[in-house]
Amino acid sequence: MTPVLTKTATTVKSPALPAEWRDFLALTKPRVMVLVVYTGIIGMLMAPVALPLALGFTAILCIALAAGASGALNQWYEADIDALMKRTMKRPLPDGRMDAQSALHFGVGLSGFAVLTMGFALNWLAAGILLGSILFYVVIYTVWLKRRTPQNIVIGGAAGAFPPLIGWAAATGQVSALPVLMFALVFFWTPPHFWSLALFMEADYGAAGVPMMPNVAGERSTRRQILFYTLPMAVCAIAPWALGMTGLVYGIAAIVLTAIFAALAFRVSKRTSDAAMKAERQLFKYSILYLFALFGVLLVDKFI
């Protein structure tokens, strides 16, 4: 039976001082935001319609603010389990540098501003997808899935896959096959990326009672699933070239970059638990480089 973690307020410290601007910035998870903004920019620039500079900047700003709002609301809801993990216990809420109400108001306010600005400045399709990405991350992933099932990151990974769709929709007012493939690529990339982290952070998640795949299904099963999800990811990565949406430059780069990813995933899948740490870290680090490089080559290929 899959363990269910109930929300409890346990070791979160009481705020002692008013929060500083750095604490509000930390709520937005700026490291995560970089990848979100990057894929959103590529989605917008790959569109057949070029936005004026001011509107393009507005679209990306809205994507960034929505990502920050999602991070803030995530930290507001998860302050109790953040306080139990070494990786997160120094965040503003569990460390007592901010009260929960401030984080909630900040997250809701950013969400509303981002969605309304996108709607009025660009179009309401992009605004609707933007709102859907926030709700998916906060309600579906954070509130519903994360504490209940080891499949949390599989379904919840869709939240991080929306930016290319949003960028494309902001430019064109519609959605077509290429941004859908970009969405699918990030969606299937997320489990291998995140589970490779979860494997060497297993003790941290176990201490917080979060039912991540290694803690529930075991390390061996998690390694197999990393390889399993790499296969549809590879298909999505190569499909834009195979379907004639991109040129040869992207096709060659996609094949080479994905082959390296698959080799690392295969190595992780075959390791024993005692020997896996190095392979897991290598896959996790490369997975970040992989997504940056693959999306970058998409853009290079377009202009070549």
UniProtKB/TrEMBL annotation:
<protein>
    <recommendedName>
        <fullName>Protoheme IX farnesyltransferase</fullName>
        <ecNumber>2.5.1.141</ecNumber>
    </recommendedName>
</protein>
<comment type="pathway">
    <text>Porphyrin-containing compound metabolism; heme O biosynthesis; heme O from protoheme: step 1/1.</text>
</comment>
<dbReference type="InterPro" id="IPR030470">
    <property type="entry name" value="UbiA_prenylTrfase_CS"/>
</dbReference>
<keyword id="KW-0350">Heme biosynthesis</keyword>
<dbReference type="InterPro" id="IPR044878">
    <property type="entry name" value="UbiA_sf"/>
</dbReference>
<dbReference type="GO" id="GO:0005886">
    <property type="term" value="C:plasma membrane"/>
</dbReference>
<dbReference type="InterPro" id="IPR000537">
    <property type="entry name" value="UbiA_prenyltransferase"/>
</dbReference>
<dbReference type="Pfam" id="PF01040">
    <property type="entry name" value="UbiA"/>
</dbReference>
<feature type="transmembrane region" description="Helical">
    <location>
        <begin position="165"/>
        <end position="188"/>
    </location>
</feature>
<feature type="transmembrane region" description="Helical">
    <location>
        <begin position="57"/>
        <end position="77"/>
    </location>
</feature>
<keyword id="KW-1003">Cell membrane</keyword>
<feature type="transmembrane region" description="Helical">
    <location>
        <begin position="226"/>
        <end position="243"/>
    </location>
</feature>
<feature type="transmembrane region" description="Helical">
    <location>
        <begin position="283"/>
        <end position="300"/>
    </location>
</feature>
<comment type="function">
    <text>Converts heme B (protoheme IX) to heme O by substitution of the vinyl group on carbon 2 of heme B porphyrin ring with a hydroxyethyl farnesyl side group.</text>
</comment>
<dbReference type="InterPro" id="IPR006369">
    <property type="entry name" value="Protohaem_IX_farnesylTrfase"/>
</dbReference>
<comment type="similarity">
    <text>Belongs to the UbiA prenyltransferase family. Protoheme IX farnesyltransferase subfamily.</text>
</comment>
<dbReference type="GO" id="GO:0048034">
    <property type="term" value="P:heme O biosynthetic process"/>
</dbReference>
<feature type="transmembrane region" description="Helical">
    <location>
        <begin position="32"/>
        <end position="51"/>
    </location>
</feature>
<keyword id="KW-0472">Membrane</keyword>
<keyword id="KW-0812">Transmembrane</keyword>
<feature type="transmembrane region" description="Helical">
    <location>
        <begin position="249"/>
        <end position="268"/>
    </location>
</feature>
<feature type="transmembrane region" description="Helical">
    <location>
        <begin position="124"/>
        <end position="144"/>
    </location>
</feature>
<keyword id="KW-1133">Transmembrane helix</keyword>
<dbReference type="GO" id="GO:0008495">
    <property type="term" value="F:protoheme IX farnesyltransferase activity"/>
</dbReference>
<feature type="transmembrane region" description="Helical">
    <location>
        <begin position="98"/>
        <end position="118"/>
    </location>
</feature>
<keyword id="KW-0808">Transferase</keyword>
